[in-house]
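Exam revision sheet. Question 4 asks you to relate a sequence to its structure. Input first:
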Amino acid sequence: MLDKLHENRPAQLIIGLFIGILFGFFLQKGQVTRYEAIVGQLLLMDFTVMKVMLTAILTGMIGVYSLRAIGIVELKIKPGSWGATGIGGLIFGAGMAILGYCPGTTTGAVGQGSLDALAGGITGMIVGGMVYARIYPKIKDKILQKGDFGKLTLPEWFHATIPEAVVGVIMIGLTVFAALEIAGL
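Answer key, structure tokens:
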């Protein structure tokens, strides 16, 4: 069904650009591109970011596994490791703590005219990418491969069927939403 699209690189780029613009629009409308929202989340005072991300995770999981179930998409799981996850988490967390934006909210904030996101965020992404590319050969085998857990999905990790895992994640998500609402957060 999508074979022609898979062969058409320019169409893929145009669709990707359109989806990226939509993503940025929704981030901005959800007000998660605001520095105050990110810092409020880090200080556990404003859970807007968590609610938006949890909504995106639940929607994405339902969508991806539904499209897989009807044969429209095929998952291409990449292998993972605790070393790579740890390093990635540290880099991501440091950027969030220093700048107050993640990569997605950085580009959204740039789109709405936030100069701090432009100067610090975009520059940080470019410099960070260059540094990572430079040190990658040195850390690939020593750090990134440590604790290799292979091509593992959430259902496989919990020894569950896909529907069980999806329903479980939905239930956890709804419980978190309810708890935040009850707490007035």
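Marking note for examiners. The radius of gyration is 19 Å.
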